[in-house]
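[Discussion] Sanity-checking designs against the backbone

I'm trying to build intuition for which residues belong where. Below is a structure token string of 218 positions. I'd appreciate it if someone posts a full sequence so I can compare it with mine line by line.
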């Protein structure tokens, strides 16, 4: 009996392995790029700097990202996905105050954990990625869409609280959600502009307390 020929991996399997390898390389590049951008700022970084930090030839870097803008945009998208994955996860708290504090803490905690890159984006790189209606081919972000998505998360919790009588019903839930998300957004911006004042998450409880109870004398 003649020996059986060696088993060959199906094309689909080879393709899957190649995709996993490429994804792993891409994540390694993004990890290195994040450290470089946070250290040097957006304007000063060159593709050669990222290649050196990643430990690959600059030509290899261009196989994954066509330029610095595309590389940073990859970081923006990765963090956006992580942020909304964290924000939209199921809540643990039971009372409305606990739930809202948990949501606000998630927002402020994300900035606290990723403040350096967040500052790079807000203080110089953001304008590069705001959408230009005349250039559909350019990578862009939609701040309004993100704000609305955050508001929708707050609105869902507030709507449930209105139904249980924990939150007043004479104000539209959209207005309540906008108020809380806008206040949270200002806390985020303040933590970037004055990072040494206080840890962002330390303000979550006060922010929610003032939102639910107001600052007037009772």
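Best answer:
Here's mine. Compare freely.
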């Amino acid at each position: 009996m003649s020996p059986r020929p060696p088993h060959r991996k199906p094309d689909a399997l080879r393709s899957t392995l190649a995709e996993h390898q490429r994804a792993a390389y891409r994540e390694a590049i993004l990890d290195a790029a994040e450290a470089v951008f946070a250290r040097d700022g957006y304007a000063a970084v060159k593709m050669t700097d990222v290649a050196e930090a990643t430990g690959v030839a600059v030509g290899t870097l261009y196989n994954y990202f066509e330029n610095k803008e595309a590389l940073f945009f990859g970081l923006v998208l990765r963090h956006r996905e992580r942020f909304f994955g964290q924000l939209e996860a199921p809540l643990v708290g039971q009372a409305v105050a606990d739930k809202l504090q948990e949501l606000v803490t998630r927002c402020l905690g994300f900035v606290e954990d990723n403040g350096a890159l967040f500052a790079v984006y807000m203080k110089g790189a953001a304008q590069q990625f705001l959408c230009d209606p005349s250039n559909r081919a350019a990578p862009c972000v939609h701040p309004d869409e993100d704000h609305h998505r955050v508001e929708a998360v707050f609105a869902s919790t507030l709507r449930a609280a209105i139904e249980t009588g924990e939150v007043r019903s004479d104000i539209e839930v959209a207005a309540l959600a906008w108020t809380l998300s806008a206040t949270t957004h200002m806390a985020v911006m303040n933590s970037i502009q004055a990072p040494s004042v206080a840890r962002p998450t330390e303000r979550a409880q006060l922010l929610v307390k003032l939102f639910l109870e107001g600052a007037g004398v009772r």
